[in-house]
Design goal:
mainly alpha, Arc Repressor Mutant, subunit A, two-stranded antiparallel ribbon, 2 strands, elongated
Amino acid sequence: MKLNTKMRYGTRALVALARHYQEGSVSLAEIARAEGLSEKYLESLFAALRSAGLVRSQRGARGGYVLARPPEEVRLREVFDVLEGPEPYAPCTGDPGACPRRDHCATQHVWAKMYDASMQVLESTTLAELAARDTEPGVNVGMYCI
């Protein structure tokens, strides 16, 4: 499985919001600068995240974005579903009837187990956990992937 840049960069930006959750909104320019990301790209990601109800925008002199819920309540699976899409890794894992080889396929169960296991990891991980890890000495979630 390969995560697209939407998921990787979107998660980094949401972790930044989680770190600042008690302080109020954070501008996309601040996130872009801190994470080394394109502000324009973040705008498109945040439009999707806002539509999904994961973030809210705030206007004003200290405007920007905030998480719509506490970081303890936002699971990475929700972010994945918005930015990657909820489709399984292989069409046959979501609909076994989609594959003409379904009656004698040796791999379908492996793809299904792989998808289920990864979704379980995403479901059990919150933004609060990632934000807490990001503040540990020598650990920076934003630096894990480019």
